[in-house]
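quick one, 439 residues, struct below
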Amino acid sequence: MADDTKPGIRILDRFGSIMDGIDETDPDTARFWLTMAFQIKRWQTRHLPDRGELPSGNIGARLALEGVTDALEDPDNAVITSIFLPNEIFHAMGLKPVMAEAISDFLTGARSEAGFVAAAEQRGVPETYCSFHKILIGAAETGVLVKPHLIANASVACDANNITFKWLAKSLGSEHVYVDVPYEQGDDSIRYVADQLRELAHVTEETFGRRLDLDVLKEYVTRSQATLDAMVRTLPLRHGRYLANDMGLEMQQALALFLMLGLPDAERMVHQMEEDYKSARRYDGLSLVWVHAAPYFSVPLQKVLDRTETAQIIASDMGFAQVSLDGWSYGPDHPFEAMAERLVRNSFNGPATRRIDRIRELAERTQADGVVVFCHWGCKETLGASQLMKRDLEAAGFPTLVLDGDGCNRANCPDGQVATRMGAFIEMLQAQRAEEAGA
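---
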């Protein structure tokens, strides 16, 4: 999930070219090649880590690969979930949750997204629908993605969440649980969601024929809160430090938190971030907060942002959507309420102003030079709020660039135009910094 010239990416390219055209005609073969590609890449992240990344970066890359590959290898124990749905219930029962965005991201990494997008559109999915969800639908409908026993999703954070999973469950004949998350952030909302999570646990027990140990669940929730609290502690450490970051790594670390939150490895990754950032060398380039998905496959944009001395992504709002900046109301002794609180207070839940406040707080705590709002194809929530974000963030003193593109479908991402606009934005920020230094 980075520069197309890297050996790992070239491996996935080769498998992508082998897969081209066989998605629907021979889904078993397509699944075999894709799984093999991910297995090879997983082996690489385990045994040949990227020397250019910080140790925490290599952990994040490995966890993201393992989260997707392990679920694809063991479909009988996999659960298809939506972004932000608490996964501790599944981990505590020895299951392997994998969310739509993770599957689609890695299918894109294998350069196989076009066939799945086409398959979804041929079945009536609108061209304007979210590409992450189209790829998932295409993979399921062609038979490349094995039918899961359980599909579970929450209403956070997009319209597609309220359509895709219901449609897939009906089409595939999978058990389905939907968690409705109210916009209001009070205790009534938390209790309402907690009861739905209890029902999710019950359905999961019935579907897989195993019991949920509440003491084990509490252990996972304890680690989740400790992990997210450690993420908050990394914010001031990011300022003026070289993070060896790139768009692909930013997405991988966010995916690792979504997929693995509650597991010891996720907590270890974030504690390693703390250590890495404390000892990282000084960085004098620009620091940017990134909003929403990132087109990690865009080579022109990589040349502008990935591991350069000019500018780096210092934080993303997706990576910090689940944290609490002012403490938790419910602890691990009330695991369902604790998980529900994380969903209800998620910065992607509710009015756009809630998300804008979180972006501004990230920019303030990292002392960012500017913000990039990426309007991913089909995401009406981000697109509709983008100008409001720009207005409010610039009023708070953070120059903001709004970019249109696609986080997982190359066909919808105008590389040259996006890179040109990003370059111009960086030049503007550099000029502004020079003017302030000379004042």
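Confidence is low (pLDDT under 50) at residues 1-11.
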